Amino acid sequence: MTADHADSEADTRPSTRRSFLKTTGSATAAALSSKLGRPVFAAPRDAATCTLLKHGLIVDGTGKKAFLGDVLIKGAKIDAVSTTPIDAQCPTIDCTDKVIAPGFIDAHSHMDWVLALEGQPELKSPFLAQGCTTFIAGNCGYSAGGFRKDSPHKKRFNPGIFPDFDLAWNTMAEYFDHARKIGMTHNLVNMVGHGTARLSMRWDDPSPLSDAEMTELLMLLEQAMDQGAHGVSLGLQYTPGIFATSDELKRIAQLVAKKDRLLTVHARAYSALSPDYEVKSFGMPHNVLAIKEMIDLAKATGVRVQFSHLIFAGTLTHRSYAQALEMIDKARADGVDIVFDTYPYHCGNTGITVVLPKWFREGLPANYTNPTALKRLELELTSMTALLGFGYEDIQITYAGNPDLNQYNGMFLSEIAKQRNMRPFDVAIDFAQHAEARGAWVLLHKYSNMEIIDALMKHPAALFMTDAVPVKWLRNPAAYGSFPLFLQYARDRKLISLEEAVRKMTGATAERMRIKDRGFVRKGLAADLAVFDYKTIKDNTTLKDFDRPPTGIESVFLNGKQVVKSGKVNESIKAGLVIPA
Questions:
Q1: Are 316 and 279 in contact (CB under 8 A)?
Q2: In a domain? residue 404
Q3: DSSP 184-215
Q4: Is 176 a domain residue?
Q5: Residue 21 forms part of a structural domain
Q6: Domain count within the chain
C-alpha cells in the first residue's frame, strides 16, 4: 500500500456515495411480494437452530444480477433463498439496504500455520471482521502438513513469528486432526507445499535430488493429496524451491495433473530483472519470462495452474503488466488452464531472504561472512535497485525475529541504517543472517500502482485474496481490509459490478478449487454468509495504521453460526471445518 491508497480515502466518505439501491428505492422483498400478490413462504419453525435474514439484496456469487429477498439458515445449511417473504419463528436480522453474499474465500493464504495455533484470536479475528470465512492455504511451497515422518529438520520449521510453535504432527491428515481438535475459526482448504516436503527430507541442500529422493518427494506429495490436500504449491523464489530443476518441476506437475488437482505457483521472478535469469539486452522481462515458464509447464503436462499473487515489483517493472496479461490471455485462448490471484494493495509480506539470489543462498550460511560473496551481492543489489526502481527504502521490517533487532519492527531498512549509522546493505544482511528461521519478515512496497490494480481486478482470470500472514507486531493491511477494499474500488472506481466483485471473492474461487458445498447463496449449501453495507464499506488501514478494522461488514455466518454481529467478532466460536479435496 502506498500513498495512492491513503490519498483515495478522501474520495470514499459515505456522504459522497450514491445508494446502490437507487433503482429500487426503499422497496423490500416483503413490499414487492405484497404488491405482486405472491404467497408467503412458510418455513420450518425451530428458533433453536435457524436464523432468518430478511429484505436483503442477495448477491449469490454467480455473477448474475442481484435480487431482493430473504435467506433462511437452518443448522449449518442454507435452508431457503426466496424472493417471496419467508415466515419463520426464529431470530431475524433486518438486511434492508444491505447485501447478503457468500462468505468471502481467500484465494491465496498462509493461514494454515496460524490455524494450527491454539488461542491467539487476535491473529485470526481480523479476517472474520472483513467477511472472510474460508482460507485456501499452504501456498508458496510451504504448508503446515506433509512432512517426512520423524524428520530431523522439523524443529527448524518454526516460522519465527510464533515463538511457541510446535509441530506435533507429520502428515496432512495428522495436521487436519490437530486443527479440528483445537477448534477452527475458519474453514480450511489446503495445498501441500513442495518446499515443506523437500525441506523435511534434506533441508536447504541445493544439489539436485537423487532418483530415490525424487521418488520419496513425489510419494510425500501424493500422500498429502490422498489425505485431502487440493494440490501442490511451489515457491520458486524461496529455499528450496529456488533449487528445483526443470525435471523436478515437470515430474511434480505430471503428478498433480494425474491426480486432477491444482498447482499453485510462486514464480521465480516478479520483477523485470532477476539475478536468477541471464541478462539479455532487449530480452523478455524476467517476471514475464517466469510466467512463460509456468505456461510452458502447463502445456507440457496438462496441469491446472494458479499463478500466485501477480505483482510487478519496482516502478520500472510496472510497465510490463500489459505484456504479462497478454501472455496469460494468449495461453488461455490456446487452452491452457491458468488463472491468477491478486490483492488491492501496493505492498505484500514475505521473508527478507527473497531479495537474495540463488547463487548466494546456495552458499549459506558461509556467504554471510564471505567478503568476496558479499561484495558481489552488494554490486548486484545496487545495480538492480537502479534498474528496477526498488530499493532499501521500500523494505519495511514487520518482524525481525531477534530480541536485539525487534526494536526496529515497523521501520524501513533505509531508516534503520541511519539510526544505526550503517550502510543499508549491511543492515539487510544483518537482518537476513540473525533472524530466527529463514530471515526477517518484511513488507515490500512498490508492488504495483492503481493502473495495475484496476487492470488486474477487471481481468477475467483474476481471483481475489489477501496473502496476509498476521504477526503480533506490524500487520499486513490485507489482513484487515483486503476484501472491503476490493468492494470499495469496485464501487468508487466503477471497475466492475458489485456482482462480479463478489463472484471473484466467492463463487469463482469455489469453482476453481472445486469446493462443492459453499461459495454461493443457494439452498442446501453451507451457511457461510456475509452481510455488508455496499454504500459504506471501506478499508480503514493507512500507511501508519495497518491494523484498523474495516467499515461496513455487519454480520458474518460460518457454517450457520453467527461469528460477527454488528461488526464485532465473537472470538469464542470455533465453527470452521477442514474441507478436503
A1: no
A2: yes
A3: -SSEEEEPEEHHHHHHHHHTT--SPPPHHHHH
A4: no
A5: no
A6: 1
Alpha helices, DSSP H only, in 279-370?
A: 286-301, 321-333, 358-362
Buried b / exposed e along 498-533 (16+ C-beta atoms within 10 A): bbbbbbbbbbbbbbbbebebbbbbbeebbbbbbbbb
Least Cα distance to 226 among 205, 255, 199, 251 occurs for: 255
Task: Write down the residue that cell numbers 459453499 correspond to.
Answer: 518
H/E element holding 58?
strand 50-58
C-alpha cell at 539: 478499508
Q: What is the pTM of this model?
A: 0.89
How far is Cα 412 from Cα 395, in angstroms, rounded to an integer?
5
Low-confidence winner among 43-52, 179-188, 480-489 (lowest mean pLDDT): 43-52
Name residue 382's beta-bridge partners: none
Residue numbers of the domain that contains 423: 353-444
Contact criterion met (CB below 8 Å) for 519 and 509: yes
Q: List CB contacts of 214: < 8 A, sequence separation 6 or more.
A: 248, 251
CA 8, 13, 18 angle in degrees (round to 5)? 110
CB of 413 closer than 8 Å to CB of 424: yes
- 70 within domain boundaries: no
User: pLDDT digit string (tens) for 8-33?
Assistant: 333 322 333 334 444 333 333 344 33
Rg (CA), the chain: 24
Q: With contact defined as beta carbons under 8 Å apart, do 169 and 263 qualify? A: no
Q: State the Cα–Cα distance between residues 539 and 346, nearest whole angstrom.
A: 14
> Percent of the chain scored above 70 by pLDDT?
89
